[in-house]
Design a protein that fits this description.
There is one protein chain. The strands form 2 sheets. The chain has a two-stranded antiparallel sheet. Strands 3-4 form a two-stranded antiparallel ribbon. The protein is elongated, with a radius of gyration of 23 Å. The chain has one domain (4-85). The protein has helices spanning 7-14, 18-36, 51-72, and strands at 42-44, 47-49, 95-97, 100-102. β3 (95-97) and β4 (100-102) form a beta hairpin. The two termini are 35 Å apart. The protein is mainly α.
């Protein structure tokens, strides 16, 4: 379980880096060009790239896009604030904090 205030920091910590995103885009494009030429594999920076690497790259880009989409929503949870801070006090009931109570 994760507390709503931890979503933003967790996404920031586990989001793919800019270098990983760029690498994923490069291998997807290179593999697509190779597939169009009738090849199943391609070399990118001396590394052999095949369909399993492209699948991982697509997954990584999907993860990055999902995190970016969540981060772009302006909600208390996206900002790392608890919903409790946004709620109005209960009306018609006593609210007690420790030994201090108010009507």
């Amino acid at each position: 379980m994760i507390h709503p205030t931890q979503i933003g920091p967790a996404n920031a910590a586990f989001a793919p880096s800019a270098a990983e995103i760029e690498w994923s885009r490069r291998i997807i494009a290179a593999h697509a060009a190779a597939a169009a030429a009738g090849k199943g594999v391609v070399l990118v920076d001396g590394k052999l790239i095949e369909s399993l690497h492209v699948e991982n790259a697509r997954r990584l880009l999907g993860l990055a896009e999902g995190i970016e989409q969540i981060a772009s929503v302006d909600t208390p949870r996206a900002r790392g604030l608890s919903d409790r801070r946004q709620r109005r006090p209960l009306r018609g009931r006593r609210a007690c904090l420790g030994t201090q109570c108010r009507a």
